[in-house]
Amino acid sequence: MSDLKTEEKAKAESLFGYIDETHIPKVVTDIIEGWDNQSKQKQFNAILTVAHKDRVINYYQEFKKTIS
């Protein structure tokens, strides 16, 4: 099965907890609130990876909204 088919099947079976509208804001808030500690006082950077382009856009918009 392709990655997309696997994700679609998991989504249909409600195996993904991050599909709801509250997940991305919670992740963004957690990252921002813990950034000084998580980055060792900004010594390190990070990469957030996601499976789909639309999710990348949603994260970008949420970071932009939260930081502004």
**Mean pLDDT rating:** 84
Total domain modules: 1
Q: What does the oligomeric state look like here?
A: single chain
The amount of helix comes to 55-70%
User: Order of helices and strands, N to C?
Assistant: HHH
Shape: elongated
Unreliable stretches (pLDDT < 50, length at least 5) are none
Q: Main β-sheet: number of strands, strand sense, barrel status?
A: none
Distance between the termini: 41 Å
Q: Helix tally? A: 3
The count of β-strands is: 0
Quote the beta fraction: under 5%
Radius of gyration over C-alpha positions, nearest whole angstrom: 14 Å
- Helix and strand composition category: mainly alpha
Describe the structure.
It is a single chain. The chain is mainly α and 68 residues long. The chain has one domain. The protein has 3 helices and no strands. It has helices at residues 3-12, 23-38, 53-67. The longest helix is centred in the middle third of the chain and has 16 residues, at 23-38.
Features:
68 residues; mainly alpha; 3 helices; 0% strand; elongated
How would you summarize what this structure contains?
With 68 residues, this protein is an all-alpha fold. It is 60% helix and 0% strand. Helix 2 (23-38) crosses helix 3.
Topology:
Layout: H1 3-12, H2 23-38, H3 53-67
Helix pairs in contact: 2-3
